[in-house]
Amino acid sequence: MEAKDIKKTKTLLQSSENIVITCHKGPDGDAIGSSLALYLYLKKQGKSVTVIVPDDFPFFLKWLPESEHIILYDADKDAANTIINKADLIFTLDFNALHRTGDMLEVLSNASAKFIMIDHHQQPDDYAEVTYSDTTICSTCQMVYHFIDALGDINTIDTDIANCIYTGIMTDTGSFRFRSTTSTTHRVIANLIDLGIDNAKIHQNVYDSNSYNRLQLLGKSLTNLKVIPELNTAYISLSAEEQNDFNAQKGDTEGVVNYALSLQGIKLAAIFKEDQNSGLIKISLRSKGDFSVNEFSRAHFNGGGHTNAAGGASTLSLKETLDKFISILPDYKKELS
Ligand code: 5GP
Ligand code: MN
Known about the structure:
With 337 residues, the protein is of the alpha/beta class. It is 40% helix and 18% strand. It folds into two domains: 3-207, inorganic pyrophosphatase (n-terminal core) (Alpha-Beta Complex), CATH 3.90.1640; 213-336, Roll (Diaminopimelate Epimerase, Chain A, domain 1).
């Protein structure tokens, strides 16, 4: 964090009583972990703080400390709007553009509060008083650690805060295996373990809580896996009906796209999921090497993210979306070969 941003942040915090923390729609481990870590830290500073997230988060994060106090915007709009309109300061975590909050966009755009962004996605929008953006850092959770450190409060990080930070670093780095995992990441992790967290238990909570249905849905996903060998691409599709067959719950398909990416020689992997509620096709993209799924998704699927992990959506039918994907790919033959 730059010195001028640290100074500005301190001033903003001093003059703010009511603080809201929010994150992107479809919150993941990093979004929820960073929101709760910051929440716990600011509460310790005596602030009145509320975490409001656009919609529900996966069952495997519900053990996180204070997660039961998170307000789901889509379930409690009136109460959430009142709190947001009363806020002096709003932290936006783990996203780079306000529209990533879905239905919260309107109330956030009209809020009188000042904004502080903490995020590691590419090409951040310019809406915040303080934009702490660093695309080289693996996770927003690691950034929250550096943020607390920069404010001179590293000693206030307790076991609960450490649990939250560890969770987001673990989920966003694929359990410390992605290239974004640096020696600094490992130093931060070492400090968190020294604070008494049970790292093996956190991993179990997140990754070993599968239902039978979830594993069967994974089986279906792998059955649906298609490969385009000449373009080193693999993709999975899941219709709404297929998801219903296995009573799919929020988070059940998280990580499934990585199986497609794990195929030998594959450079681009995708999963296309029909979302019954929104009628949209939700897309997760992953790549290896230089192929930027952030650019690819921005260009074709109204999304974005990082070089090697991005998301997007399509308003076409599942079949039309797959056809579009397959027809675009040959334009990238050089990059994918
Ligand atoms: P996932 O595929 O796990 O949903 O998302 C992969 C990464 O891309 C995450 O860091 C996520 O926050 C980001 N992402 C997902 N969807 C979008 C989108 O529509 N726009 C942008 N800018 N980023 C996205
Ligand atoms: Mn993240």
